Amino acid sequence: MTMMAGISARSAAAAVTGLTVDLKWPNDLLVGGRKVGGILTEMHAEPTLVKFVIVGIGLNVNQEKFPRGTGWRGYVAACGNR
Q1: DSSP type of residue 28
Q2: Residues near 80 by beta carbon (within 8 Å), at least 6 away in sequence
Q3: Are the C-beta atoms of residues 3 and 26 closer than 8 Å to each other?
Q4: Which residue among 30, 35, 64, 74 is least packed, with the fewest CB closer than 10 Å?
Q5: Any residues with CB less than 8 A from the CB of 36 and at least 6 apart, and which?
Q6: How far is CA 46 from each of CA 30, 43, 50, 54, 81, rounded to the nearest angstrom?
Q7: Which of 33, 40, 39 is nearest to 10 (CA)?
Q8: pLDDT digit of tens for each residue in the chain (82 aa)?
């Protein structure tokens, strides 16, 4: 489940920013070698039954000050230029 969420988050971030987003298995999203997000999963199961899975995807989007540019796109673009 973590890998599926990671691949989906990587694809979405790349589509939104137009940058190359790497997935460091199993749960880190990287641009230019810098972490810009991550995936966390938690599962509750019995031997024959998965009761539930929680998937959390976090992206660094709520910063007010960025090294270059403005907003998340500017931050991710800055990471991609390193």
Answers
A1: E
A2: 17, 19, 20, 31, 32
A3: yes
A4: 64
A5: 13, 21, 29, 30, 59, 60, 75, 76, 79
A6: 34, 10, 6, 15, 46
A7: 39
A8: 888 999 999 998 888 888 888 999 878 998 888 888 899 999 999 999 999 999 999 887 665 555 555 555 666 665 655 4
